[in-house]
Amino acid sequence: MSKLLLLLKVDIKRTFSINKLKNRKNILKTIGIVILALFITTSVLSSVGMYTYMGINFFMKYGLEKYVLPIIYFLCGFAIFYTTIYKAKSFLFNPEDNIFAMPIKPSVILSSRIIVLTILNYFIVSFIFIPAFIVYGVILKLGMLYYIYAFLAYLFMPFVPTVLGCIFGYIIGYFTSKVNNKKLFETILTYGTLLFVMYLSFNIQTIALKFVNNVDIINKLLSSVGFLINSFMALISQYSLKDLLIYIFTNIAAVVLFIAIFKNSYIKILQNLKIENTKKKYIEKEHTKKNIITTLVLKEIKMYFSIPIYILNTSFGVVLIFFASIATLFYDKDILFKIMEIDSKSLPIYLLLIPVIAFVIAASNTAACSISIEGKNFWILKTMPIESKHIFLSKIILNTLVVLPLMVVSIIIFGISLKLTIVQTITVILLAIITNIACSIFGLLINLKYPRLDFISYTHVVKQSFSSFLGIMVPLLLFFIMGAVYTSLKIDIDTYILIIFALLLSIIMLQYNILKRWGIKRFDEIN
């Protein structure tokens, strides 16, 4: 037990970077993280509360408000299950983890990791469950007993989805380790899931009506295969002590059985995941000489496509806007403007397109984590006989290749569907190009200032690092200020566009000089 508590303490500190938060040198970074966390927490809690309120009012029209509870349970379970699949792959089933060389039983390591994963999943449950059940209780005017049972349901909710996510994470990790293009498989799976979730969110009203019309079928389905959801519904709505005990026992038993089954084969599983297939045939090809920039760019591209979370976080917005541009070819433009509550006559259409393009470009900044992504291999990059400016250029080119090709195609499609003039279309394309360059150089500078090379998972660098946050939020803040200036001063549109061009070009020149002088020096200082 003492080893489990010690290992659990180490895993928690490592996962949440507690030691770094205690470091007084990172006080500004800590304050930034706290502000970001508060902003995200407030936004998510208010959004979930609002959607719950709308959902309850909808189902109350048909006397089906009790089904809001299993829907909330399902959403919590799915969110935990989906995120655990990816967390389990890097945290639970990581064959490169050096901790297995220590004199600790695999069962202790497995137990510690499961507990930490469950703690992480409590954040997801809290964001969805707490505001939803408070809103449900307030609207239906339920008493204190409801909140007591709801709290007990909350305590044990992450257990079964976490276990199922770990099992599926292992299965996916096992099968992808047997194929050559395993990273491509993971990327396709992630994109497919996100597109499916977006499809559901855009068609939520149609799905809700189908739910109401097929409630009898859903009741039969729940009674036959959803005993855990039934127990959950009964303990919340009927305050059933029997169902509460069944619910608690099932969740605890799932975790205990998982550890009991996997503890004996844990090391063997990790060894199997480490084995990779090799090509049966090797075809010798003639090697051609490439210049330094081409070689570095190819290296960046190869690294980019080997990290699924890197691809997802930096290209999803571009892919999404591409699909949105295609959609505008088939939908009535007046309906789109009504949905967005925009008067197309008050503002030029292409002026409405510019902030959307700028937002996507800022949110797709690969350069903001391009130094950190090198990780433990950063020393190799530093010792190579290559000038720092060439390394910087390759990372900027990567961001350009990720964003601009599909973005330019999307702008051309928007130009056709929204009936923009050739000059307007070219103007938006040029703005996209210089915005991309400005964001790329800024992201690189920020990552040089705040590199994170000691990460555990690529998620920590791509989604949770301070440089990634600043690389996105600072350009967005600048774009917001630009929009506020135009709205308040009512500048002529042509003059406004020229000012933006001049401002972005000035920013690029300033950043280039900083990168050329300070950036090279800072690159040499990073260890």
Task: Characterise this structure.
With 527 residues, this protein is mainly α. The protein has 2 domains: 2-274, no CATH class; 292-525, no CATH class. 78% of the residues lie in helices and 0% in strands. It has 23 helices and no strands. The chain has helices spanning 2-16, 18-22, 27-60, 68-92, 106-139, 144-156, 159-176, 182-202, 204-213, 215-225, 227-237, 241-262, 266-274, 292-304, 308-327, 333-339, 349-363, 378-383, 388-417, 422-449, 458-462, 466-489, 493-525. The radius of gyration is 26 Å and the shape is globular. The mean pLDDT is 80.
Any chance you could write out the topology, listing elements then pairs?
Blueprint lengths: L1 H15 L1 H5 L4 H34 L7 H25 L13 H34 L4 H13 L2 H18 L5 H21 L1 H10 L1 H11 L1 H11 L3 H22 L3 H9 L17 H13 L3 H20 L5 H7 L9 H15 L14 H6 L4 H30 L4 H28 L8 H5 L3 H24 L3 H33 L2
Helix pairs in contact: 1-5, 3-5, 4-5, 4-7, 4-11, 5-6, 5-12, 6-11, 6-12, 8-15, 11-12, 14-19, 15-17, 15-19, 17-20, 17-22, 19-20, 20-22, 20-23
